[in-house]
Amino acid sequence: xxxxxxxxxxxxxxxxxxxxxxxxxxxxxxxxxxxxxxxxxxxxxxxxxxxxxxxxxxxxxxxxxxxxxxxxxxxxxxxxxxxxxxxxxxxxxxxxxxxxxxxxxxxxxxxxxxxxxxxxxxxxxxxxxxxxxxxxxxxxxxxxxxxxxxxxxxxxxxxxxxxxxxxxxxxxxxxxxxxxxxxxxxxxxxxxxxxxxxxxxx
Length: 202
What we know:
Elements: E1 6-13, E2 23-30, E3 33-41, H1 45-61, H2 67-77, E4 84-92, E5 97-103, E6 107-111, E7 121-123, E8 126-127, E9 141-144, E10 150-154, H3 172-183, E11 190-197
Parallel strand pairs: 5-8
Antiparallel strand pairs: 1-11, 2-3, 3-4, 4-5, 5-9, 6-7, 6-10, 10-11
């Protein structure tokens, strides 16, 4: 597999008392660029983790599919599980475009290169539902992206105020660790995925 046109960092924690987290992530190169996902299995513990693992595996093996098709196929694949909430972004590196889509409450924000403290941001519009159980009407948004832009996904164990604390020059792993440490709610699994786009050539 070719190297992804990005660098990324991830930080995660399981709900205290649970053996594993139901929050998973994916950063996967495909022929046009990159597929990025943050997945939150419904509930906690082993069953939530199993649903999230199933979603992650399916998305990785179908990363070249158009994003709405991919979400619909994933929904069918997960019907035998308790389901997940999920946000996806597909980056077309050669054309400088990102298509993203969210079902449930996995927060997403794109920070433009050279901005900080909540400025120059695009926020993912989320639609209620559960992938594998109840899929809403799907509508993806398409945004231009540039080298140095930063995509952040955070599950609902992370307070939404994190969006006001993003810094363009912070390394992805340091940003993920800081956001989780500062904004973890303490009452759920939590995951923060920070992806800096480095190989965009529009």
